[in-house]
Design goal:
Number of strands: 20
Bound molecules: adenosine-5'-diphosphate
Distance between the termini: 47 Å
Helix content: 10-25%
CATH superfamily of the largest domain: P-loop containing nucleotide triphosphate hydrolases
CATH class of the largest domain: Alpha Beta
Number of domains: 2
Structural class: alpha+beta
Number of helices: 8
Strand content: 35-45%
CATH architecture of the largest domain: 3-Layer(aba) Sandwich
Radius of gyration: 25 Å
Largest sheet: 6 strands, mixed
Length: 368
């Protein structure tokens, strides 16, 4: 099958006075498994419906396989969409549900039979053609919805929260199945999710949306390690964010005054944000936990290459198996600290003093 690209250029869409998509430019590669990730109401479904042809942009271009398709109706776009609700006909058999699109297209009988059988085979439901949707599990219904879309042989597959109706263990299994199927078919696939784990474990790349604004596009690791801003940092994983003021920029170093904590000296990164106010960010597991070294200072100034040492006090903790998540007070700030667990390792109680060590390489500076 020919793999096609999908591209949005300067797409805007408003409902009345509400701007839902604000100047979205995005290029999805042929054959890519691409996630649209963002909180509820961020505009993900609207963008997906726009690509499908169920919504119209006020401005901008939409290209599929390099051709502008904004004026084309959904059925002329070679796009297949699987809805969150599956939208199966309850009174029709699985076979007839899958055949529906082909009947509408007046596909000859022999071809229809072949294609429906093939689509059911692909999703592992060859033996279930006679059943009604109500006689299937949630995961099987999801596969019927998928087969019904695949049978029309779309060039682009659009999935709107395809796994959200399934329980946790089935969701993990289905997302692997979905990924394997996508790899086998090589179908350019765009799926909407608010679940960062789902996006990170499946997508080649993802776009993070907030309030209709595209925040960042990249691989899971790029977004996790190099978030563009505080929103992405907090949405893709957990991040400590400390507001800081730049005291000086000298000799490849930055001297920062962290609000309520003290001074930190860091090597200036290549992509240092401009401005006097910054956010110092680091992941909870980037902090190494140790006993207090007796220094006692809330924070100290160190030379650029050295690690930062902080002294804090345990406020609360949660045991999560793989690690213990602590809330630690440092100066006036609360930090989230993940400490890897080993059998027999005792938890630090609330009130215990804690020494924290942080490598400058694990710190990322974000716009304040
Ligand atoms: P998401 O998929 O990220 O949850 P949506 O694209 O469904 O977000 O919605 C984005 C925003 O657009 C929301 O504020 C929603 O209320 C609004 N919206 C979506 N569809 C319509 C519509 N048909 N009419 C008016 N507002 C809408």
């Amino acid at each position: 099958m020919r793999q096609v690209s999908v591209e949005c250029r300067g797409v805007r869409l408003s409902y009345g006075a509400t701007a839902v998509l604000r100047d979205i430019s995005l290029a999805i590669e042929p054959g890519e498994f691409f996630a649209l990730l963002g909180p509820s109401g961020s505009g993900k479904s609207t963008l997906l419906r726009l690509i499908a042809g169920f919504a119209q942009a006020d401005a901008g271009e939409l290209l599929i396989d390099g051709a502008e398709v904004s004026a084309r109706p959904p059925w002329e776009r070679n796009v297949g969409m699987v809805f969150q609700s599956y939208a199966l006909w309850p009174h029709l058999s699985v076979w007839d549900n899958v055949a529906f699109g082909l009947v509408e297209r007046r596909t000859p009988k022999a071809e229809l039979r072949r294609r429906v059988a093939e689509a059911l085979e692909r999703v592992g439901l060859a033996a279930y053609g006679e059943r009604r949707p109500g006689q299937l599990s949630g995961g099987q219904q999801q596969r019927v919805a998928l087969a019904r879309t695949l049978v029309i042989e779309p060039q682009v597959l659009l999935l709107d929260e395809p796994l959200s109706n399934l329980d946790k263990s089935l969701r993990v299994q289905m997302r692997q199945e979905l990924l394997e199927l996508q790899r086998r078919l090589g179908l350019t696939t765009i799926f909407v999710t608010h679940d960062q784990e789902e996006a990170m474990t499946t997508a080649d790349r993802m776009a993070v949306l907030d309030h209709g604004v595209l925040q960042q596009v990249g691989s899971a690791q790029a977004l996790y390690d190099q978030p563009a801003n505080a929103f992405v940092a907090g949405f893709v994983g957990t991040m400590n964010l400390l507001p800081a003021r730049v005291r000086s920029r000298e000799g490849g170093c930055l001297l920062l005054d962290i609000d309520g904590v003290g001074d930190w000296r860091l090597p200036a990164p290549a992509d240092e944000p401009a401005g006097e106010r910054l956010l110092v960010s680091f992941r909870p597991h980037a902090l190494q936990v140790g006993a207090v070294d007796g220094a006692g200072d809330a924070a100290a100034v160190h030379d650029a290459a050295a690690a930062l040492h902080l002294a804090g006090t345990v406020e609360a903790s949660e045991f999560l198996g793989e690690f213990t998540r602590y809330r630690v007070r440092v100066g006036v700030q609360d930090l989230v600290v993940d400490h890897a667990h080993r059998a027999g390792r005792a938890r630090f109680p609330a009130g215990a003093p804690l020494g924290l060590r942080l490598e400058p390489s694990q710190v990322r500076l974000l716009p304040g």
